[in-house]
Amino acid sequence: MSGVTLRLDSERWREHLRTVAGATPGIVPVIKGNGYGFGLRQLAEESKTLGTDTVAVGIPSEVGIVREAFSGDVVILNPWDSSSSLAAELATEPSVITTVSRLADLELLAARGDQPRVLVEVLTSMRRHGILQDDLGKVAELLPGVRFQGWTIHLPMFVEGRYAEAERLSRTALGVAPGTLWFSHLPSEETAGLARQLGGADGNPVPVRQRVGTRLWLGDKLARTSTATVLDVHPIKRGERAGYRKRVCPADGWIVVVAGGTSHGIGMEAPTSAKTMRHRAIALATGSLAAAGLALSPYTINGKKRWFLEPPHMQSSQVFLPAKENPPQIGDEIPVELRLTTATVDCVAWS
Fold first, then answer.
1. Measuring CA to CA, how many Å separate 184 from each of 53, 122, 286?
2. What are the DSSP calls for 127-189, one per residue?
3. At 2, is the pLDDT very low, low, confident or very high (cuts 50, 70, 90)?
4. First vs last Cα of the chain: how many Å apart?
5. Model pTM score
6. Which H/E stretch holds residue 197?
7. How many Cβ atoms sit within 10 Å of the Cβ of residue 291?
8. What is the pLDDT of residues 202-226, one digit of tens each?
9. Which one, of 79, 80, 147, 142, lies nearest residue 111 by Cα?
10. In what order do the strands lie in the sheet with 73-76?
11. Residues of the chain with pLDDT > 90: what percent?
12. CA 262 to chain CA centroid, nearest Å
């Protein structure tokens, strides 16, 4: 099959999954979006094989896909939206756990009379979703109207101050109502330490759950490779024009047409932060090149990443190769670097 292919060493990948699951007490695999490049159903099947009792999805519409392969509890991570009929319907189902991030929504759910299962989200320094620490006291009077499943705390990935923030918010939340603490982006050893630290007089740790996505599914980079099929190869002379935008070719060489374009997520990677002056200089340089119509592609030919002739098309890309290089043959598979959280591949090949 020609196209963009994700090749997986299945035994190595699954061994990594078992290792992470075994080292993560209370693991809740996260299955959302594009399924980290593998697809939602595939990850649901893998979660079932791991023996976990609960998974997490991003939005209500993902619940149905996951349930095709997974029969346990499903947490919806995005905050409950009172205007969504699907979210309202799912909140009535006994195997669905709804995340609530606003007091007004908790009031609505508590007043329904059907005792939905609810996680209450605490606002962290991410400043994304959650109830302010000073307002958590108002939650207690609403909890009798729901089946309270615990407190969810979604921390930033920034390490400095993370444990202290988790401890502070956890203490405040547990002071309002005892319950399970559900964490994102808190390492297992820190989660276990905090559970012991906050444990009761009986010496038992506070129950915790850990949501894990990228570290679980994409943590072992050596377990996978991705390739793209060479669709065509054409010689071109310096000064000749090619592509949708009739770009001038900078030198003699080859135009290599390869599978993969914007519909695969190529050329549409999520932005990354520039943390140092070097990173900022690189961003400035590559931004200037992009403005001039030049951009380094994620395709590797003869051991080097090559330049796009022009921005990628929907399902293919044109890459320039200098004349001194030996071009690949039509049908060859060449390496392509994918950001799997934004990629859609044509085929997952298991070995």
1. 17, 12, 33
2. -SS-B-GGGGGGGGGGGGGSEEEEEEEE--S--TTHHHHHHHHHHHHHHH----EEEES--HH
3. confident
4. 16
5. 0.89
6. helix 188-197
7. 9
8. 879 999 999 999 999 999 999 999 9
9. 142
10. 27-29, 208-212, 181-184, 147-154, 117-122, 96-100, 73-76, 54-57
11. 86
12. 18
- The Cα-based distances of 191 to 66, 88, 178, 205, 344 in angstroms read 27, 32, 17, 11, 33
Lowest mean pLDDT among 40-54, 253-267, 291-305: 291-305
DSSP 245-291: TTEEPSSSEEEEEEE--GGGTTT-PPP----SHHHHHHHHHHHHHHH
The Cα–Cα gap between 348 and 1 comes to: 11
Confidence at residue 290, expressed as pLDDT on a 0 to 100 scale: 42
What Rg do the C-alpha atoms of the chain give, in angstroms? 24
The pLDDT, as a whole number, for residue 269 is: 53
* Apex 30 CA angle, 105 and 164, nearest 5: 75
Q: What percent of the chain has pLDDT over 70?
A: 92
Pairing of strands 316-322, 253-259: antiparallel
| Domains, the chain | 9-217 (3.20.20.10), 222-350 (2.40.37.10)
Average pLDDT (231-236) is 97
Q: Which of 260, 218, 244 is nearest to 309 (CA)?
A: 244
Q: Are 330 and 233 in contact (CB under 8 A)?
A: yes
